[in-house]
Fold:
Amino acid sequence: MSNGKRKRIEHEHQSAFFAWLRLNARKHPDLRWFFAIPNGGARDHGTAIQLYLEGVQPGVLDTHLPLPRDGKAGLWIEFKTPANDLSTQQREFKAAVEAAGHVVHIVREWTVAARITVDYLGLTGVQIPAAPAPKVRP
Structure:
């Protein structure tokens, strides 16, 4: 599988996860505080410099919920395809935030991220549908 196709699959799962968050945020307002970190992807040189100057760091994981629960400082979720793994920088970031008391999960499907979020926040009565396979354009 090409790197571009892997990125599209990861994008589809992360997008589905954030659509699910938005659908459930009215009933469960803490879901509003989950956000994405725009680290990956190809960019033109000017945009890359601008983001660098603004503080974008390589290795930071895809998504973060900065709400403490049950003695944990926050929740990080990284979306990966089965054929993709964490980069060296991501492994270093993961180890650092875990050592600081954060929970980190690497997921392959958005429904797993949804279940992790529900469990982390201790939510009840939240629907998590079966995940259809993301539609990936060739």
